[in-house]
Design goal:
The protein has about 250 residues and is α/β, with parallel strands linked by helices. Helices cover about 40% and strands about 15% of the residues. It is built from 8 helices and 6 strands; from the N terminus they run βααβαβαααβαββα. The chain has a 6-stranded mixed β-sheet. β5 and β6 form a beta hairpin. α4 crosses α5 and α6 crosses α7. The longest helix has 21 residues.
Length: about 250
Amino acid sequence: MKLILLRHGESQWNLENRFTGWEDVSLTESGIDEAMFSGHQLLESDIQIKSIYTSILKRATETTKIVSDILNFPQEKIQQNWRLNERHYGALQGLNKSETALKYGEKQVLIWRRSYATSPPFLDKNDVRHPRFNHTFKNIKHELPVGESLKDVVNRISPFWGKYIKYIKENLGNHLIVAHSNSLRAIVKTLDNLSDSDITNVNIPTGVPLVYNLNDELAVINKKYLIDPKKLKTKLDVVVNQGKIK
């Protein structure tokens, strides 16, 4: 069995180097190209996809649509789940990462971006950025986040993950999840059994399929990104440098 994790293509706020979180922004032209690249990499690798799950945010659903079209995967079979949404960046949402690093220091921004248990400053309930003001989230029957640590995301995803694991055990084949940097980091932490400190060093690039080969017990046999190693390093360096002063 293969489990493929795919971070959405570049979004407009990725391009502008902003903390995006639950802000519902679309792909850039480069992001569209990345989604197309991902679809063709899966197609050329002859990976037949049995299921696709994605978040409810546009940058992920747009990526999913492009990939599924390339793979000729039926649109009506795509499953959306809000628990796969990106980590909510609280009061940081919308701020430029480099400018925030200049104001608070690169070390603090790195803690906000990559630590396991440290939350960003929370949004006030009357802040216009609060998710309760966004129509996209009106059907979520759960307390909406106003700032999450990666630990919070792990806990948020847990109900989905338990059902998902049962599903793929009962439906052997290759399965694709299209989501976000931190929702995928939460899944990687679980799959790779990483410590709270080890996960701080994990970065996930936009628009590159990460393929896990799993045994019947869903233990990891191996994993690889479907991209040239030099190009992967370049894309990972972009992620690492986002929180640095420029």
